[in-house]
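Support case: flavin-adenine dinucleotide complex. Customer-provided input:
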Amino acid sequence: MAIPSLATLAVAPIPSLSDEVNQIRLDTAKIVSEHIIPNEGNFAGELPETERQALIMELRTHVKESNLWAPHLPKEYGGMGIGFLGHAYMNEILAWSPWSNTIFGVQAPTSGNQTVLIKYGTEAQKKKFLEPTISGEQTSCFSMTEPDNAGSDPRSIQTTAVRDGDEWVINGRKWFTSNGQNAAWALVMCRTEVEDEGGDVNSKMTQIIVPTDTPGFHIERSVPVWGHVSGSHCEITYKDCRVPLENQLGSRGTGHAAAQDRLGAGRVYHCMNCVGQMWRAFDLMVKRATERKVHGGMLEDKQFIQGFIADSYMDIQASRLMTLHCAEIIDSGGDPRTDISSIKVFVPNAMHRVVDRAIQVHGAMGVSGDTPLAGMYLGARTLRIADGPDEVHRILIAKNVLKRYHDGLSWDFGV
Ligand SMILES: Cc1cc2nc3c(=O)[nH]c(=O)nc-3n(C[C@H](O)[C@H](O)[C@H](O)COP(=O)(O)OP(=O)(O)OC[C@H]3O[C@@H](n4cnc5c(N)ncnc54)[C@H](O)[C@@H]3O)c2cc1C
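Agent response - structure generated as follows:
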């Protein structure tokens, strides 16, 4: 892929941040701008596969030696231990390139699975399933959404896990299980209700770890997304798939809560990635505006284009500050649910607008494969559906706000 006139990744220390976080940002910017962005064509397939893999491994080693591996994980699990806020400040730089996530060891869906295994996993599960993903030897997938039931209402899932002796027997059909083809194991959301048992539907869901080489785990196909099959968003049947009872994650009935934990963290990571990508799209757009001559003048002198720049600046800074604020709430132990839903709606939509303007400024080149913009555009659009569609998050925001007013309180934007 020809990367046109890349601007530098301009990162200066932020006065209000600690020296540690500023250094992390500078070190990350150096690796992303010197080693990752110049190699994007190679990562995308210009190199033969063995050389491509070797390059990725070499850069991962460099990242580990620079103490920048797994920013989302605590130190005791081999991560950086910088919390959500430190991660957010680092990730807005890291996400300049879509290839950074795998090189820095913070790759969805495995990153989300790691978060829940740390919280809900037994020591044996951590050893067997979590550790190989942290070292980078294995990846995983999360298998919840089903073709015949509304993914936006996870309580509607019909995949069952029935206890038989010391095993769970799983039957069902899932789709859009991202990374299904490469994963060593899947976290599968199952209905484990027992007949006549009381409790609400949330208490009938359990997540179970299923190694992908288990008999009965069958990938039907990789569902094409935006015309591409390479995303590995798999449709999978689970047919009498037997795993030991100890593969159950947490106690029975905690599947819904674990999914919310996983998706909550995952949504914030997605938004951090959006901020970094928007920043790069903005950079490409402004640079192009200063270089491209149209109708006897530079693009930058046209007021339409100046409007694009100003509107994009506002979209990015608003997204960035909302995401940082949300990370701050999580780190301080507050209730982040309203803010997670807010950024999950606002940030991908803002990214959609910013990238759309950047594409427009680039003309035909903007929709070509010669810039990363087309990929960013599709990613932003997809995020308005994945991990819960916009409408569901809007409903949640309104519900939380209204509840406070019904409780005789008002909304406090300061916490
Ligand atoms: C690229 C991609 C990757 C994905 N990866 C994974 C994965 O790894 N694992 C996994 O389990 N799932 C994954 N998903 C699935 C994703 O989480 C679901 O698609 C999403 O939750 C929406 O579910 P659905 O597609 O069944 O849409 P539905 O639930 O059928 O909803 C369809 C539409 O109805 C509207 N809608 C829904 N509820 C309401 C409401 N209450 N009020 C008004 N309108 C409403 C929304 O506009 C919504 O888009 C992925 C999806 C995509 C596109």
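The CA atoms of residues 227 and 378 lie 11 Å apart.

Case will auto-close in a few days if no follow-up is received.
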